[in-house]
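Q: What structure does this chain adopt?
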Amino acid sequence: MCYRSEQDLARNIAERANRAASPATSKRELVFQQFLGDYKSKRKTEYVSPLRLAGHAVRAGKREEALGYLEEACEQHDPFIVILQHDPQFDGLRVWTRGIWRL
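A:
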């Protein structure tokens, strides 16, 4: 989907959030679910870092999916994986892991 400006993108996301908002899902999570979906579709035609996908998945409330992307980043030997221990967006995964590693 192509947007003319960041305002158009923000407006589109806000409209979707208002339509699909449920008490269990915040508007912030809905915005990041939209970003995650956009990057997943973009991934079909070009390279998108699994760390970027993991970051959006964490902020969208999809922990299992985020851990899957982090595993993929490890398998690809992504050099930026070393900054995970200092990246606050992954704080929610530090306690909640599947025994893969301790962030």
